[in-house]
Amino acid sequence: MSTVTTTKPSTTAAATAASPLPGEGRIGLRGNMRHIGALVRRNALQIKQDPESMFDVVFMPIIFTLLFVFVFGGAISGKGNNGEYVNYVVPGLMAMMGMNIAMGVGTGVNDDFKKGVMDRFRSMPIARSSVLIAKIVVELGRMMVAIAILLAVGFILGLSIKTSVLDLFLAIGLSAVFGASLMWIFILLGLTMKTAQAVQGMAMLVLMPLQFGSSIFAPPTTMPGWLQSFTDVNPLSNLADAARGLINGTPLGNSVWITLAWSVGITAVTMPIAVRKFRQKT
């Protein structure tokens, strides 16, 4: 009597998806750029099919600008000096836009894993980093839309550029560089936390002290000494001061270089960890 033997699969589908593909490490720069471009197009088409995903980008800068200018502007700059406060708060809000949009990247990555989208990407012969970089590129595009709306509302309320258009673009570029570095932190959170709600909750615990313990909304000189010490080392304060100096012509000091140093440092630490976590996540 003959016996029939069956072979049991040695790996699960999830493990196969997470394991490196042959030749993955030999993908060149041109191949990486092509993969990133294709994934950027895919993510952009998703936004086109779901316009509601742009509601935060469209309404957040409008609501925050009106709220802080008309609720806090008179108290901080004096009644009737809202125009002066607009020039103070709008550059600071540019820094805030990057951080709030970065939070959405983490929840999006976590949700994509729950839906199985990321497992499908990991089964393809593409560079793992291209999936995450494409997400950041699209979110930077969303951030630019938010900053454009923020500036438009600011100009309506009396914002004036006291330097040059080039300096304005430098302020926007600096905000984009710092925002991109923050996105790696939130991608790592999205890959680590079990649910999108957990990512959002952890993000708020980080966002609130950094945003309100900074020079975005009010000069640190009005704060108690212990809070001023925190504000001085807060990277959001450095970015807000740099953007404010580039737009208003106030002294920059070392704020630009400190912001760039923070951006490079955060990216250098979190990007490799996030990519490795993306490879290994099951």
Automatic annotation (TrEMBL):
Predominant localisation class: membrane
Entry's localization field: Cell membrane; Membrane
Keyword set, alphabetical order: Antibiotic resistance, Cell membrane, Membrane, Transmembrane, Transmembrane helix, Transport
Residues covered by the ABC transmembrane type-2 domain: 52-281
Residue spans crossing the bilayer: 57-76, 88-110, 131-156, 168-191, 198-218, 256-275
Signal peptide location: none
Topological relation to the membrane, as annotated: Multi-pass membrane protein
Alphabetized InterPro entries for the sequence: ABC2_TM, ABC2_TM_bact-type, ABC_2_transport, Nod_factor_ABC_transporter
The UniProt record lists the keyword Cell membrane: yes
PANTHER family, alphabetized: NODULATION PROTEIN J
Family as reported in the entry's similarity comment: Belongs to the ABC-2 integral membrane protein family.
UniProt-recorded name of the protein: Transport permease protein
Organism this protein belongs to: Streptomyces katrae
